[in-house]
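Ticket #4471: structure output looks truncated?

Reporter: J.K.
Steps to reproduce: submitted the chain below (375 residues) through the standard prediction queue, then opened the result file.
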Amino acid sequence: MANKKITALDNLPSPAGADILPIVDDVAGTPTTKKVTATNLMTLAPVQSVAGRTGTVTLSNSDISGLGTAAVADTGTSNGNVVVLDGVGLPAVNGSQLTNLPASSSLPTYASTNRPASPSTGDIIYETDTGRISVYDATSGLWRYWVQDGAVDPDEIVNLYSTQYDATDDLGTATIASSSMSGDFTLSFWMNGASTSNHSMMSSNYGYADGWGLLRKSSNTFSIYYYYSGGSGWLYNGISTGMSDNTWTHIMLARTGSDLKTYVSGSLINTTTLANNISFSDGTLVTNSGYRSASYLDEVAVWSSDQSANISQIRSAANKPKNLNAMSTKPLYWWRMGDDNSGTGTTISNNSNATGGTVNWMLTNGASINSSVKP
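Returned output as attached by the reporter:
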């Protein structure tokens, strides 16, 4: 190799590290030939960066480590391309431009009166009758929701139907356990009617038989009466109230021992001492019997215990019916007067969460479910 001219050096094999290579060093236009070994040339020569180079530059894998396949990918918006931003930068992105997202899921749906029996904190449901989204709070034991226009009692219910009776012969009846109202009990209902004299709002065996009843005497008074065939005979207890004509009013009787308390629109109006049990031998609960009036009845409920301490769980401060299934003691019977029956028929079922089983409220002689008048 040392005997060859530089111009004749061709087809040379790769040099060994100790081979001497001639290099022309051109400084200020004066070329000078220098000799350097191949090892010195490869290890001591400065490494020039790509910046400032012209022409095609071929990079090895080590030169582009960290870039991965992006270093050799095309630019553009197709799949696998590298995005190149213009002077505007990233475009605005909204939800409508997002694709391949998981399919949306629906909330579990329940009526407000038939929410899950054993909810956990954070459970969320959609209430089909109220249109609300409710979240369960186990600390308070309440379903909570938010409305934009202010605070709402979380257990108020949307009431779509009531029952309607004429002043001729319409009746509403239910046969329940005779023990349910013979001792301690609570009876709750909503009434709307005219001031027809001696209008029988609610009673058991009306007439000269052991029983009891609520008889509306006029616009502002009604009587609670009892009859004992083997004892004291008739007993009337007149109660003055602010019960207005053709206005929905909440009535509740609650008995503990010998005390029978009467509530009207959430207020305790009267307490009567009644030593004897109220006879309820055949278990017939009747509205609009005997003395009749054109009237409406709704949300009838019975407990076999005194629930007067829980009246705020039965009627809201806004004078609306509440979800009785949210109470610590659920009613034995709760007839929603059409809301559990899609507003149709003459056989009204006991609410499914009431504890008294299958007991129907029967509409006869033309009594009907009404959708236009309700609390």
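Triage note (M.O.): checked the attachment and the full token line is present. The helical segments are 38-44.
Status: closed, working as intended.
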